[in-house]
Amino acid sequence: MASAPHSDDALFDDFLETNGHQMTTTRWEYSYNKKQCPECGGIHSEDARTCTVCGWKPV
Ligand SMILES: [Zn+2]
Q: Origin, by domain of life (predicted)?
């Protein structure tokens, strides 16, 4: 089985990729080069670390 195209790690990555969008978002989204809070949609500057609107922050 040395020629198996996918390792377990690759399958796990696929799993995360497929399901990641339905889970709690852990990263900033971007809108017009501004950070956008995935929880409330608030727009923040590049150096923002937490959302000042709803308090969300990247995990
Ligand atoms: Zn927010």
A: Archaea
Span from the CA of 14 to the centroid of ligand 1 (angstroms): 28
**Residue owning tokens 């796990």:** 12
Contact 6, 13 (CB under 8 A): no
Reported in sequence order, the residue ranges of 1-59 that DSSP labels E, i.e. its strands, are 29-31, 34-36, 43-44
Flag whether pLDDT at 29 surpasses 70: yes
Give distance in angstroms: CA of 53 to centre of ligand 1. 5
Residue 36 bridge partners (DSSP): 29, 43
